[in-house]
Amino acid sequence: MTKTLAVNAGSSSMKWQMYEMPEEKVLAKGLIERIGLKDSITTVKFGDQKEERVLDIENHTQAVHILLDDLKRFHIVEEFSEITGVGHRVVAGGELFKKSTVVTPEVLQQVKELSALAPLHNPANAAGIEAFMDLLPDATSVVVFDTAFHTTMPEKAYRYPLPKKYYTENGVRKYGAHGTSHDYVSKEAAKLLGKPIEETKIITAHIGNGASITAVKAGKSVDTSMGFTPLAGVMMGTRTGEMDPSVFPYLIANDSELKDAQDVVDMMNKKSGLLGVSGISSDMREIIDAKDTNADAKLAFEMYVDRIQKFIGQYLAVLNGADALVFTAGVGENSVPVREAVLAGLTWFGIEVDPAKNVFGVEGEISTPSSRVKVYVIPTDEELVIARDVEALKVK
Ligand SMILES: Nc1ncnc2c1ncn2[C@@H]1O[C@H](COP(=O)(O)OP(=O)(O)O)[C@@H](O)[C@H]1O
Ligand SMILES: CC(=O)OP(=O)(O)O
Ligand SMILES: [Mg+2]
């Protein structure tokens, strides 16, 4: 029996699962959420034990240490050497990485160098890789890239309408993110549709703290809402999504707190989105609780929904229609009000939601039998994909 650990560090969370491979049996799993916010929550599930603790966890390095302590504390492992493979989600692989790769010192260096393409993620991903490699020098360490699935996008979709040299000399283009999730849920949706994936057109809405929407044709990403970095696309927990870049110099000239372009980008990454508009929180649960009594929270909710609807509309055009629309990730899987509001504006496309199915905890189809586009809630499982890639790359 070999134990493989999959680590999925998101912008606000760290999810992990320990598997027995190749059986894909989940031995234990955990979630550390609200990293960087007050009252972070860490949950561990192991056999019939479940523990939830509320702590203040400031960053991902601290989260890695909590995860490692928990592995020993719950006797999930007696010795770290029982873990023979560790897979890490890395958000940005640029044009260097088109598939998952075994970590070498050079690969780790490249992950760090790609931080400009995912400033909230790659540094945390690299810190996680290093922490585990120090403790588990003999385990196979694998990196699984969010951008890999999107390397099938056609050039007309991934290029920006800038002078060509910024692409050829600087690599400025759309890379997308959340690819492991879009890949996984689109395959699951094809199963639910009962069709070979080659015959499907699917729009996948991965809406978590970070959020992106993808047009998937025949199982391949053909367009996606995130861009050069995960700042682009729809409005998110703390990120703006699409912006007019002319705002950048204007704000630098007019706000003394913003000295340069980096300050503006940091503000747009960390202080904007739901948090910035509402002034309350980046967490959709808190926005929903406040929106009936607080006008800013109500506006934040409406803007959030509006941006998701617009990208779904774009991708219905890109694909010239779709067989299915999938909701996944923290908000997409759990928030009935967000799904309800998004879908209420898409009835012209023949999308019909069944309110009896669009309830908390339901997975699978939430549309009516006559809906022209099937609507599915599919829990994503980036960790399973990561564990499979580790297994495939392990030196046997
Ligand atoms: N029941 C719920 N209703 C609304 N939003 C939820 C619910 N549960 C979780 N969320 C949202 O999911 C987000 C986390 O999503 P997740 O996909 O785990 O994020 P990450 O981007 O860190 O991977 C939280 O910010 C929270 O707003
Ligand atoms: C790329 C990205 O935004 O990831 P997450 O949603 O996990 O923060
Ligand atoms: Mg995530």
From TrEMBL:
GO terms for cellular component: cytoplasm. Mg(2+). Can also accept Mn(2+). It is found in: Cytoplasm. GO terms for biological process: acetate metabolic process; acetyl-CoA biosynthetic process. Pathway: Metabolic intermediate biosynthesis; acetyl-CoA biosynthesis; acetyl-CoA from acetate: step 1/2. It catalyses: acetate + ATP = acetyl phosphate + ADP. GO terms for molecular function: acetate kinase activity; ATP binding; magnesium ion binding. Substrate binds at residue 89. The keyword Nucleotide-binding applies. Mg(2+) binds at residues 8, 382. Its EC number is 2.7.2.1. The keyword Kinase applies. InterPro entries: Ac/propionate_kinase, Aliphatic_acid_kin_short-chain, Aliphatic_acid_kinase_CS, ATPase_NBD. ATP binds at residues 15, 206-210, 283-285, 330-334. Its main location: cytoplasm. The record marks 178, 239 as: Transition state stabilizer. Homodimer. This is Acetate kinase. It comes from Lactococcus protaetiae.
